[in-house]
């Protein structure tokens, strides 16, 4: 595999395992990025059920504009996404980072839009906090911005080394159980680092890596196409409860 470091892919895997995240080379191209944005714009405009539309940061069933529009598993209704360079490239890297044959990994996609002019941050969280503790697997999240992502429009921030700890206590954003998104409660974020990523490049992070994305303070929307890959699930004998996952 060609990389922009000109080094062995093993170095990326080593960095990923040491820090809990790593920046990857370009996975897509301007033509594909423009096509994906057009496709995703249409999804948001229609608030279609394709891919399960939700507002990550607003109350359920609100009829106001979504603060943080997201679509889970858009490939269910748009299977052609699975043939995109984004998904193919992300799968190849997931195989490297998880040291598992890429075609054996389970996959789902996730789209998050940060609307222009403010909006809300994606609070500090660990992806594993969203997942059912009765199941165990190894996983990686590969995050591809469709627009250049920087501090002004909500690039990712990571806490190096946080992936080796436990799942931190979480709650629904602002303590409001009507909001789907989670936030870690007083997480240790000393040493966190902002990771600007050009459009079409990617970052990869581990299930317990603490991460955050700021609000979008620019005039342009900022899209991210996110890819979650995991190994085969096994049952956990004594799962640690995640009470924040239980709500009416
Ligand atoms: Ni996340």
Structure report:
It is a single chain. The chain is of the alpha+beta class and 248 residues long. 17% of the residues lie in helices and 25% in strands. The protein is built from three helices and 15 strands. The strands form four sheets. Strands 1-12-7-14-4-3-2 form a seven-stranded antiparallel β-sheet. The longest helix has 17 residues, at 30-46. It is globular. The model has no long low-confidence stretch (mean pLDDT 89). It binds nickel (II) ion. Nickel (II) ion (NI) binds at residues 125, 127, 211. Nickel (II) ion is lined by residues 125, 127, 211.
Biggest β-sheet, characterized?
Answer: 7 strands, antiparallel
Mean pLDDT: 89
Give the radius of gyration.
17 Å
Care to count the β-strands?
Answer: 15
Give the overall silhouette. globular
Our count of helices gives 3
Q: H/E element string?
A: HEHEEHEEEEEEEEEEEE
Beginning-to-end CA distance, first to last residue: 47 Å
Q: What structural class do helix, strand and pairing data support?
A: alpha+beta
| Strand order in space, largest sheet | 1-12-7-14-4-3-2
Classify the beta-strand content into a percent band.
25-35%
Q: Level of helix content?
A: 10-25%
Poorly predicted segments: none
What small molecules does this complex bind? nickel (II) ion
Q: What descriptors fit this protein?
A:
3 helices; four-stranded antiparallel sheet; globular; seven-stranded antiparallel sheet; 15 strands; binds nickel (II) ion; single chain; alpha+beta; 248 residues
């Amino acid at each position: 595999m060609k990389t922009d470091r000109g080094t062995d892919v093993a170095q990326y895997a080593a960095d990923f395992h040491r820090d809990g995240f790593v920046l990857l080379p370009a996975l897509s191209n301007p033509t594909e990025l423009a096509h994906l944005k057009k496709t995703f714009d249409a999804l948001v405009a229609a608030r279609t059920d394709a891919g399960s539309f939700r507002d990550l940061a607003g109350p359920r069933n609100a009829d106001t504009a979504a603060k943080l529009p997201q679509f889970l598993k858009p490939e269910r209704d748009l299977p052609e996404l699975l043939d995109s360079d984004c998904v193919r490239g992300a799968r190849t890297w997931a195989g490297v980072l998880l040291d598992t044959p890429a075609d054996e990994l389970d996959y789902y996609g996730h789209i998050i839009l940060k609307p222009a002019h403010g909006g809300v941050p994606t609070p500090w969280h660990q992806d594993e906090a969203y997942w059912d503790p009765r199941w165990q697997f190894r996983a990686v999240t590969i995050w591809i911005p469709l627009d250049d992502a920087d501090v002004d429009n909500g690039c990712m921030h990571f806490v190096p080394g946080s992936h080796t700890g436990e799942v931190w206590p979480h709650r629904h954003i602002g303590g409001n159980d009507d909001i789907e998104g989670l936030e870690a409660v007083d997480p240790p974020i000393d040493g966190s680092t902002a990771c600007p990523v050009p459009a079409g490049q990617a970052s990869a992070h581990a299930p317990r890596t603490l991460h955050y994305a700021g609000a979008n303070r620019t005039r342009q929307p900022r899209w991210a196409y996110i890819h979650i890959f995991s190994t085969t699930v096994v049952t956990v004998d004594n799962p640690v409860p995640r009470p924040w996952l239980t709500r009416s």
